[in-house]
């Protein structure tokens, strides 16, 4: 497994780290955390609300 040792990332970081949901082991600000991949990818997003996610997705 590759582990981020720099904690440098741009906006909208999606991180795959198979630990507790919403608690990836990185220092960088993240938006999406994939915390499981078996039997399917399972993710959590770091947004205050669905409306905030929609605004981010629109690029506003």
Characterise the protein shown here.
The structure is a single chain. The protein is built from one helix and three strands, in the order E-E-E-H. It is α+β, with helices and mostly antiparallel strands. The protein has a three-stranded mixed beta sheet with strand order 1-2-3, with no helix packed on it. A hairpin with a 5-residue loop joins strand 2 and strand 3.
Measured between the Cα atoms of the first and last residue, the distance is 34 Å
Largest sheet: 3 strands, mixed
Estimated structural class: alpha+beta
Radius of gyration: 12 Å
User: Count of DSSP E strands?
Assistant: 3
**Spatial sequence of strands, sheet with the most strands:** 1-2-3
Mean pLDDT: 84
Question: Topology as H/E string?
Answer: EEEH
Percent in strands: 15-25%
Low-pLDDT residue intervals, each spanning 5 or more residues: none
Shape: globular
Give the oligomer, counting copies of the same chain as homo and different chains as hetero.
Answer: single chain
Number of helices: 1
Helix fraction, binned, reads 10-25%
